[in-house]
Structures are given as structure tokens and as C-alpha cells.
Amino acid sequence: MSVDAIVHTEFPKGYTVLFGADGKVIMTPRSFEHSSTIKSMQYDTIVSLGRHAKITSDVCIDFPADENSAPDLAILREDARREGKRYGFEDVLLISEVVSTSSARQDYDGCTAKYGRYGIPVYLVVDPYAQEVVVHTQPTTTGNIAAHTHRYGTGKLPIPLADGRTFTLDLDELPRPEPETDAR
Questions:
Q1: What's the 3-state SS for 84-114?
Q2: Could you report the per-residue pLDDT of 123-142, keeping only the tens digit for each?
Q3: Pairing state between β 73-76 and 55-56
Q4: How far apart are CA 157 and CA 19, in angstroms?
Q5: Extended beta strands in 105-161, E state
Q6: Cys-Cys link to 138, which of 116, 121, 145, 159 (CB 3.0-4.6 A)?
Q7: Which of 171, 173, 137, 163 is nearest to 49 (CA)?
Q8: In the 8-state DSSP scheme, what is residue 6?
Q9: Can you state the percent helix, strand and coil of the chain, rounding each to 5?
């Protein structure tokens, strides 16, 4: 899809639209679970790291080779500086993606490989449907050496950051999907 076509396209309301380096356009419907999970993680960053911690949510971060990303949550180094309007991947300490039913494989596989390849120290896959958080660390050129799964409802999860601070994710407070009811 050309830049001109993208600029002149009206995408449906309620969808997140991502543009891949390979020319793919990915449209994902936003869900209550997705939104409330991001909100919960943002709250945990404020409690853990302070009100003025550098965090982003759905904000584009520059990666090489036009593989830019707008992760659901990113924690940046305190001394991070924007180049133009964006931060670079070198300033990222942690990225978290919240699984949507339509993006699960990308979040578990594609993003794990990408964020590992670029040396992101911590990558979290937060899955409200499986009610688990997978913490990926020790990045390599093909992914990550370590991956540890933590279940929702198992307390506070301290996650050391490369700059010496600790982000604590409260696994008891992550929102769980509500059961669907019949619409009448």
C-alpha cells in the first residue's frame, strides 16, 4: 500500500492500524480487555517508577530498517532523548504487548524475534485470554534466551530494568475478560 493510499484511506473506527515494513497493513479491533490491561500496566509504572517516568503507549519508536513499532507499553531510560519526534529503540528498557485475539501469533512469535533481534532487554507478552504474562529476557539475534510464564492472580512480579530500577507488575490487578452474555 503506498503512502498516498494510506493517507487517503478511512479506516474503521475502533481499530488499531499497524503498518509493517513488508507492506502489510494489520487492523486490530480494540477491546475493553486490551485497553484496561494497558491502563493497569500504566498505573503500575507510576507506582513503581514515579509519575514522571518516561513511558509510552501506542507511540511510534524508531527501529532500524523501517521496522518501527508502536508498542502497547514501553518503558524508556530516564535520560532518553527524542530524535525529532520519536525515541529510538536504544532507549527502550521494556516493551509490553497485550495480546488481542487477532494478534496472538504476532505478539508471541513475531514481536519476540524482533525485540530480541534489536536487544530490547525485557519483552512482556500480556495475555488476558490465557491469563498469563510471559517475561522474555536475555535478547539474542533470533529472540530471547529466557522466557518465564507467570499466571494472573499470583501477586506482584518485580521486573528488574537494565538501568537498576524495578518495574513491579501487579498480577492480581490485571483485568480478566468478562464472560460474554447473550445480546438481546
A1: CCEEEHHHEEEEEEECCCCCHHHHHHHHHHH
A2: 999 999 999 999 999 999 88
A3: antiparallel
A4: 32
A5: 122-127, 132-140, 143-151, 156-160
A6: 145
A7: 163
A8: H
A9: 25, 35, 40
